[in-house]
Write a structure and sequence with these properties.
- With 579 residues, this protein is α/β, with parallel strands linked by helices.
- Helix content is 45%, strand content 9%.
- The chain contains 22 helices and 10 strands.
- Strands 2-3-4-1-5 form a 5-stranded parallel sheet, with helices on one face. It has a 3-stranded mixed sheet with strand order 6-7-8, covered by helices on one side. The protein has a two-stranded antiparallel ribbon with strand order 9-10.
- α20 links the parallel β7 and β8.
- It is flat, with a radius of gyration of 39 Å.
Length: 579
């Protein structure tokens, strides 16, 4: 009896063009082989079953083919046939997972110095290289950086993030993609047609979904489905084989769930459970339908064609807010994790789906705030427009829903502005004081902010006022006594010289200026410190007013929220927004 060769081995690609769904990799390798730009080390990475080891073997055949280095190896010479059978003396295929120790890696590397016995190169194919220890990687490092001309390294891994960067930088990396459902379906149809095996689209779709982008997984499942279906691939046998749910029954259960129909949900759960359905698989299928329904809505806005899975999602999902679907998805997703830990799966499944069925639609936040602040006559009962939840939940027919009396709206808090000094930056033209305004120290600084911003910065940041004698006629002050605010700002003599020079440039030589040294202990505030203190006091008053405002208190109670920060809407204004 001839041994049966499974489909995954029988349909293993024998040429680069036979590789499914990896055109970006085969194109690059073909160009490298054609142009002669073949590096000494390759790294092929991707999920399981997409062709990493197959590409490495094809690359070895292309390098060792007796017709020459070519992108189209003949497949018939001794080198090609021996490589295909895993018996070529110069092509060593090593499972790195079983040779993780550094001593084993050194044994492999000791053979690098020997020239190939019969072929052109000595090729090392290391599968699952991420399983090597850090010591093994270190042993490989130097050889990988400067190998002999007759050595080529071909690495394959499913966990490239576990490979040290020093190894990655010495290889040419090729990422093999997960196959799309359309590509994988077309490949399976080609295989089944060539094998003469009847099949139906739902059964093939179930195999493709279970394979999750892996060609090897899809072919292995196909082998199993053919045996289970007595030579045919039918959805009925695959559903029984994989423990799948009836998509229509799941869609019906989801419709009862979003409509809040508790008894129907319980009956549906009982039917699935009695039929042998695993609770985790049922929740997984419910999550898939919610995901497909929301994707259908989002893609429809952009004019995209509906996806195949979108047809199974019930139409009632389109009537629900997207926020509600997101919340429903999160509830089921977290509940699925609890199902895996409980020893009462049936009871936990019922409670999970009932909790999802009792979810209320998420209200629109802007509309809710508008209702809270809407003007309503005091003591009057206003009818509330209610939208019954999908499935008819709402008030009984003929019964009018009356809202409780709405309190009088409370205006937003308005805090009278504290006597805040002018902003640090020069004010607008309309608010600038006249140059001759010298009646007080603050007027003097405002004038300097217009006439000499450089002098204003010195007076605001670095000095404190000790004496200011205004001129009776409204001119510049007669006496100006200052103190250096901090020793870090320099000596008093240097400060007096700088201020005197700038006053002289403005034609204010007649001011009697004195500047004293900075002293330890209490001192008057600088103008900057005064402004900062006023602003801090104003913000504190603002936070207290916002925190006690009825609208904010109501929102925090309804949403279990808290005030994170209160910020003024304008740099110097009392109005603020809470977030």
């Amino acid at each position: 009896m001839t041994p049966y060769l499974v489909l995954a081995r029988k349909w293993r690609p024998q040429r680069f063009e036979d590789l499914v769904g990896q055109d970006h990799v085969t194109r690059a390798l073909t160009n490298a082989l054609t142009s002669g730009r073949v590096p000494h080390a390759f790294l092929f990475t991707g999920i399981r079953g997409v062709g990493k080891t197959t590409v490495a073997r094809l690359m070895a055949m292309a390098l060792e083919c007796q017709t020459g280095i070519t992108a189209t190896p003949c497949g018939a010479c001794d080198s090609c046939t021996e490589i295909r059978a895993g018996q070529h003396p110069d092509v060593l295929e090593i499972d790195a997972a079983s040779r993780t120790k550094v001593d084993q890696m050194r044994e492999v590397l000791e053979m690098v110095c020997y020239k190939p016995s019969v072929a052109r190169f000595r090729i090392y194919i290391l599968d699952e290289i991420h399983m090597l220890t850090s010591q093994s990687f270190n042993a490989l490092l130097k050889t990988l950086e400067e190998p002999p001309a007759h050595v080529k390294f071909l690495f394959a891994t499913t966990e490239s993030r576990k490979i040290p960067a020093t190894i990655l930088s010495r290889c040419q990396r090729y990422d093999l993609k997960r196959l799309t459902r359309d590509t994988l379906t077309a490949h399976l149809v080609r295989v089944l047609d060539s094998e003469g095996i009847p099949h139906d689209p739902p059964g093939l779709g179930a195999v493709v979904r279970a394979a999750d982008g892996s060609v090897r997984d899809a072919l292995s499942l196909l082998d199993q489905a053919i045996a289970h279906g007595n030579g045919a691939v039918r959805f009925a046998s695959i559903r029984e084989l994989l423990g799948l749910t009836d998509r229509e029954a799941v869609a019906s259960l989801l419709e009862h769930l979003v409509n809040g129909q508790g008894p129907e949900v319980l009956r549906g759960v009982e039917e699935f459970y009695q039929g042998g359905m695993e609770p985790g698989l049922l929740v997984r299928d419910l999550l898939g339908l919610i995901h497909a329904g929301l994707r259908r809505r989002v893609l429809a806005r952009e004019g995209h064609a509906p996806e195949p899975d979108a047809a199974d999602a019930p139409a009632c999902l389109d009537a629900l807010p997207a926020e509600h679907l997101q919340m429903l998805y999160q509830v089921l997703l977290r509940g699925r994790e609890d199902l895996e830990r409980t020893d009462m799966p049936y009871q936990a499944l019922e409670m999970l789906l009932l909790r999802a069925a009792l979810l209320k639609p998420v209200p629109d936040l802007e509309q809710l705030i508008g209702r809270l602040t809407a003007l309503q006559p005091s003591g009057a009962a206003a009818p509330v427009e209610t939208t019954p939840a999908p499935g008819g939940r709402g008030p009984p027919p003929g019964q009018q829903v009356v809202a409780p009396p709405t309190p009088r709206p409370v205006k937003a808090p308005v805090i009278p502005p504290a006597p805040v000094p002018p902003p640090r930056e020069p004010p607008a033209e309309a608010s600038r004081p006249a140059p001759e305004a010298y009646g007080s120290w603050r007027d003097f600084i405002r004038t300097m902010e217009v006439r000499s911003p450089r002098l204003a910065r010195e007076l605001v940041h670095k000095v404190t006022l000790e004496q200011y004698t205004p001129d009776p006629g409204g001119g510049p002050p007669a006496v100006l006594g200052l103190r250096v605010a901090h020793a870090a700002y320099g000596a008093a003599a240097d400060m007096r010289r700088r201020v005197a020079e700038q006053l002289s440039e403005l034609g204010l030589d007649g001011i009697r200026l004195t500047v004293t040294e900075a002293a330890a202990g209490p001192r008057p505030e600088t103008e900057l410190e005064t402004r900062d203190r006023h602003q801090a006091d104003q913000l504190r008053q603002l936070e207290e007013a916002v925190r006690d405002h009825p609208v904010v208190v109501n929102l925090a109670r309804r949403f279990q929220g808290r005030i994170v920060a209160v910020e003024p809407l304008t740099p110097d204004g009392p109005a603020a927004a809470a977030r």
